[in-house]
Amino acid sequence: MSGKGEPLVRNAGEAAFSVEFGNEISIELNERATAFAALLEREPFEGFREAIPTFRSVLVFHDPEADPEAIRADALDLARRAGREPARPPRRIEFPCVYDGEDLPDVAARIGVSVEELIRIHSERDYRVFIIGFTPGFPYLGMADPRLDIPRRPIPRVRVPAGSVSMARAQTGIYPWVTPGGWHLLGRMDPALLFDPGKSPPSGCLPGDQVRFLPVAELPERPAGETAAPPPPEGPPALEVERGGLLTTVQDLGRPGYQRYGVPWSGAADPASLLFANRAVGNPDSAAGLECTLMGPVLRFRRPLLTALGGADHRAVLHLPGGGRWPVPVGTSFLAPEGSVLRFAGPPDGMRTYIAVAGGIDVPEVLGSRATYLTAELGGFEGRALRSGDRLHVGRTPQGARENRFEPDARRAPSAGPLRLRISLGPQEFAFTEECVDRLSELRFTVSNDSNRMGVRLDGPILEHREGMKEIVSDANPHGTIQVPPGGHPIVMGADQGITGGYPKIGNVVAPDLARLAQALPGAEVELDVVSLEEAREITLADLARRRSSG
Questions:
Q1: How far apart are CA 214 and CA 138, in angstroms?
Q2: Residue 1 has what pLDDT?
Q3: Ramachandran angles phi, psi of 211, nearest 5°
Q4: pTM here?
Q5: Distant-in-sequence, close-in-space partners of 194: CB < 8 Å, separation ≥ 6
Q6: 229-286: per-residue pLDDT in tens?
Q7: Minimal CA–CA distance to 9: which of 67, 55, 74?
Q8: Can you give the C-alpha Rg of the chain in angstroms?
Q9: Residue 147, CA atoms < 13 Å, CB-side half-sphere
Q10: Which residues neighbour 237 within 8 Å (Cβ) at sequence distance 6 or greater?
């Protein structure tokens, strides 16, 4: 499909779809995608939630209860207009850059120039911001001098410093955060220029902007107080962390609305379990609680707190001040007296348990949410997992909160036998062999030890790509999509998913089953059950109705 062709809609689950304008990296296609995303923001159709523009497509999120045919028709009308809309005047941005990157000499030798000439080639050029993705504020910049069209490093670095200016395949990227990465490092700049959650928009670059790098010997000093952290809550803390556990973070139901800036929803990996635990203590559904992975924390109550657990059973025990011990059931509110200590004896029957306290965990909101996003050290308690010595504040106890309120749906019982995930196909099922797609429901996988909040990796059968279709032009990754790298092992994108990626996606797990997958222990068996898009929508709507009926 050429840049002037009809936009193409592809399935991306029961609450999202992709509108494609072509299949290459070009300024024309990117301008259409950017214009379409801007139209969606200015003239949203009924049921629209948010959109992620990419190189040549836009991922559109919508209310699952909206009429799917009507919203796609409305979106296509706007997409056709996008080619006639005048482009947003680009901002011209100049980033001071110290060219002292580790790969600078190697890249210079590879293209047959001196280091000084390489710096000149890279810096004396305007770059277009094509997309923001990978991590919050990460800009994909193109196009570089054709001589810089070299492959990524054969072995990615485990740790790329924040602020690193990098390049590969005639593109330049800048890492706002410490992450793994396979691009060649040329220099460094101030990462605070790329993302600031206190600003609107939070991203320092936007698609369509023009960027140029200014070679400098030293980076300018950052103005004092420019990136000050939000003030902590007032008053004495209510909880003290004696041990942080394997991975304990503050989570709520997430921060939708910022994916176009590279910010995932985050929030609870199993949102229903946190929601029903909050209801057990009388909290609103959006209150923040603690998500505890595999090995829970040790918490001391510094004042009496109405508490409830949700999710998997990690064998919680409340140690009372007088020396007694009380096994804590999941899903029932209880009053933890001052001086009591909550421990988890294990073994867990699922990956995650949730702790809700009346009033909710009180940490500053960041971009409208208290959820922790570890990669960018965003939200939660100082943007990180809890550790020994931390002290947590709790909000005001809601009216009507009471002991012994039972919420049966707060308990996430383990699956009997293999976990069967219902999936709808798309957006790139055509990138896989016909036999692979036909046999999906016959395959059995196991949850890998390498799984985390970013994605659940599935070991087992190889999903075969069609010839030449192991990679795609990078586009957006919806939460729950099944991405398949060239090796053929699927990865189900989780709560902290990378917003963009260059691997084909064969299908999308329905939302209720994605929460069940978040509870699967390493080694758990998983099967896939392909359903139609309409069936996926009905499954999700039934789950939403269940939540409302018990609210």
A1: 19
A2: 40
A3: -120, 140
A4: 0.94
A5: 137, 138, 139, 174, 176, 203, 204, 205
A6: 667 787 899 999 999 999 999 999 999 999 999 999 999 999 999 999 999 999 999 9
A7: 74
A8: 24
A9: 13
A10: 302, 391, 392, 393
